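Example: Dolichyl-diphosphooligosaccharide--protein glycosyltransferase 48 kDa subunit.
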Amino acid sequence: MARLAAIFLAVIFLFPVLCLSFSADNPTDRRLLVLVDDLAVRSSHSVFFKSLQTRGFDLDFKLADDPKLSLQRYGQYLYDGLIVFSPSIQRFGGSLDQNAVLEFVDAGHDLILAADSSASDLIRGIATECGVDFDEDSAAMVIDHTSYAVSEMEGDHTLITSDDLVQSDVILGDRKIEAPILFRGIGHSVNPANSLVLKVLSASPSAYSANPKSKLSSPPSLTGSAISLVSIVQARNNARILISGSLDLFSNRFLRSGVQKAGSSTKYEKSGNEQFVTEISKWVFHERGHLKAVNVRHHKVGETTEPAMYRINDDLDYSVEIYEWSGTSWKPYVADDVQVQFYMMSPYVLKTLSHDQKGLYSTSFKVPDVYGVFQFKVEYQRLGYTSLSLSKQIPVRPFRHNEYERFITTAYPYYGASFSTMAAFFIFSIVYLYHK
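Written out as structure tokens, the predicted fold is:
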């Protein structure tokens, strides 16, 4: 009885936490776990954390080596997003390890991972599993003797600036980031075999990755625009991942610092870091680019009820409503590239859906003259948006024997030939029998 009572009390106290988990109706009402090497990061990166909190996120700060660390309890995840700001951690505490982080993402949850030149094998391993490879030299940093910040004119030029951003309003917002972004950290490359990884912030063509405290004895492994400073991943289950080679990228100092690019006379009072990390975090945590499809319908033209099956050559209507989460509510999604397939082994019909500017997409077409088990399929994938995969199965039957036309117009010549042959045979018989 004591054990049952303990379980009951645990469920009661855990229930409010579970209610904060990801909801398809309210994707931004979520709880985030923030792992840090030192709780001082909570102060040094407070602007970024305050931005998340003002947008409705509940942050739970813990040391990365906390022995009580856990992502789930009683088979239920306690958090819907994970922020790892502990680049030098060699081993997570509690039940958390590399596999647990990857399983967390596989379950559809989001991840922000920030590294620097002290990145441990654990952090590198998680990044590699996500399709990102940091420079193998543990002491390497991104160096740029052309696009560095003027404030480091006499330094080793590891404080660089970059404005090579991905051109996508859904990922970075529709307001252009004017000021260059400050970066100090380690570079990485994206796995070309992984089509899910996308470079968001790249280094300039003059950049390279090397140890700034030693002379180059061999050509650097990463050079130019091939160096990715910040990359994102959208998994096939729509979980989103952000991987940054710089923890300082999110710091108050970089967010509030003025910036002037070497060789440029333009000096900005504030870098583009704050706008960049705010907008990219909105994308990572599904405040933008999150789609849902509802009210998938199909029926014969002139009817309103969905039939159990169609007959070949029937005319039908297909419709679906698609909405996009704006951060606070669902808004109609408007696009001209949503298509539906009428599919059996291969598409027999492929139609682009028209929309009414209010989220309703629809089209009409004729069922092909082939019977079998078909599917209505919508496979929608667009850069920066969550993918939609809709399918509805429906059988298609041939005409019954009593549904064919009694007399087919195109067969009239054959009808005439048959009757004329019978008439001719009758006349021939009369003439032959009674002719003298």
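The mean pLDDT is 87.
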